[in-house]
Amino acid sequence: MALLLPRRRGPAVAAAALLVPARGLLEARVPWARDRALDHAVERERHLVPFLETKDALLVSAPAPHAVPLHSLPSSIPFPFRPLRFLRLYPSAFALSPHPIVVSPTHRLEALHAAEAQTVDATRADAADRLLRLLMLAPSRALPLRLVARLRLDLGLPPDFPRSLLPHYPDYFALSPDGTLLELVCYRKDLAVSAMQAYAQRTGGYKVGDAVAFPLSFPRGFELDKKVRKWLDEWQRLPYISPYEDGSHLAPRSDITEKRTVAVLHEVLSLTVGKKMEKEVLVKLGEALKLPPGFRKVLARHPGIFYLSHKLRTQTVVLRESYRRHMLVDKHPMMGIRYQYLHLMHMGKEEAGKSKGKDRKVSRGEQMIGEEFGGEGEDDENEEEYDDEEGEDEDEVDEEDMEAGIASEDEESDDEDTEKTGYSTEGEAVERQPKTEQRIQIAN
What we know:
Largest sheet: 3 strands, antiparallel
Strand content: 5-15%
Number of strands: 13
Oligomer: single chain
Radius of gyration: 23 Å
Number of helices: 18
């Protein structure tokens, strides 16, 4: 049976938080501006999830020789269109036999899957620590197993992690009696150090209650309103409350509570191997972590910390500090394998006989994937190099669904994940790009 340890409130943290005075509230606007480099980091993984889930259905779930009838593929695979059309896009990975149609992996896909299995074995301890720290963030020290399964790719977990990972760490994890919850068995204090605390320790030291400022970066040409900039400077000087500490004693709808909420979201994204996550999944996780009402608006209110990409008909939250242009600063081994899968997918598109114009874009995609892991980077100052991918008109979110909208001061509900839109004529950040304006509570 899982031993769920109570969360203890650090006295120094509580004292520091209580010294923060109540501040008056004022409405201001924070614009959304497109970041082409981070959009590319999201868009280059087009179709990767259904590709990997199909691969797992063949090589993990199906016995040798790993041939599965087309109609027997799991219905849970999120194919973007008809499965047969999708599989035909990637002949370098999937072999199709006619009458009846049977899907089987190619030798190249099997070889890459074997390399992935070796990487999974080598990073098993790291994956367990990531999952353990995620459970340590939960007030109940437990998360729905179904939600953890949705986070599998983000956390770098193996596809069959309930069987291949959890049994290896009985001192870490346990399943609830009904099998619906993944519970924490042992709280490790040595792992209860957030990425921001580790950053502060590396750059000048840290003690509990210190004011740790989040690294900020903005797209070229982006400017904050002077009042917002003043508020942000004061907000950065507030005490940093670790996401692993109890925050229930903090005043609701206060600046210090918002800073802790940002700390939790920052830590969650830091635990992912790609330093990004679909907003829909992040919102569900935030609800499971009992973040305060309205927490999703925090993502739009802090564009220097989080970037909301609207590519691939969804919203993706990217941790800005983890990227240098489109490239990850710290590259996890699982991301190396993932980009090899993308390379294999591009090879399949070439072999499918694309037109010359589209071949050029595929080649460009391969080049940038290669640069991500060891190749020469392109000119960082050249903003125009990030061309929109083929079919962007089909996959781009409608303008009316793109922007995060405006939250009024008296809005307590957070029920709508996709908010209203509008166009700006000022063109501050990116020419002819739509902007989101999110109201932010700042001090007088």
